[in-house]
Write a structure and sequence with these properties.
Blueprint: H1 2-7, H2 14-33, E1 36-37, E2 46-48, E3 54-56, E4 63-64, H3 85-88, H4 95-111, H5 121-130, H6 136-139, H7 145-154, H8 166-174
Antiparallel strand pairs: 1-4, 2-3
Helix pairs in contact: 2-4, 2-8, 4-7
């Protein structure tokens, strides 16, 4: 859906963006409550079924939170464009790493772009670790301030500055008000 909209120079309506983000968040919160860390949240792992229900897929990199660690210390696991800074420096990550990745998806849905792009995967990781976040409203002024605040908090560099559980993010996201008839916007 993102690629289709981008090819036309459009973005998803904010009401649909929030609906999809809530679906991703609910699935992620459920996984976390079952003791599973996804570790690869990205649009390619989010599907819409024929009823337009959000389905989180591909738990191939998932880790059982209480289980043994099989990832070599210092190894990166995930997709660089959606990877939390701590994962980028080889730390295993935790629930807050999944929240960061969800924040990247929400950033992309609202702006039509990834927050950090570069020539190589390592350069992208470096930006996630070190570069300041380009504010979403600088790219799409139609994003409500409350939604931008949610995205910025989800994308905080330090895990302790992010939402600590997905349910906290979901509560704030559910309070974002958008017009039901909002139309797709073109990013700046």
């Amino acid at each position: 859906v993102i690629k289709e909209k981008r090819s036309r120079g459009d973005l998803m309506p904010l009401s649909e963006t929030i609906r999809i983000a809530l679906g991703i968040g609910r699935a992620l919160a459920y996984a976390h409550k079952q003791g599973v860390l996804h570790r690869d949240i990205k649009p390619a792992n989010v599907m819409l079924n024929q009823d337009q229900r959000v389905v989180l897929t591909d738990f191939g990199l998932a880790k059982i939170l209480s289980g043994p660690q099989f990832t070599t210390t210092g190894a990166m696991v995930g997709t660089p464009a959606y990877m939390a800074p701590e994962q980028g420096i080889g730390q295993p990550g935790d629930i807050r790493s999944d929240i960061y990745s969800m924040g990247v998806v929400l950033y992309q849905l609202t702006t039509g772009r990834l927050p950090f792009v570069a020539e190589t995967p390592l350069a992208i990781v470096f930006k996630h670790v070190n570069a300041p976040l380009p504010l979403p409203r600088a790219i799409n002024a139609e994003i409500p301030k409350r939604l931008e605040d949610i995205i910025v908090k989800a994308l905080a560099k330090a895990p302790e500055d992010r939402y600590q559980i997905v349910d906290s993010l979901l509560e704030e996201l559910a309070r974002v008000e958008v017009n039901e008839g909002d139309i797709p916007r073109r990013p700046n």
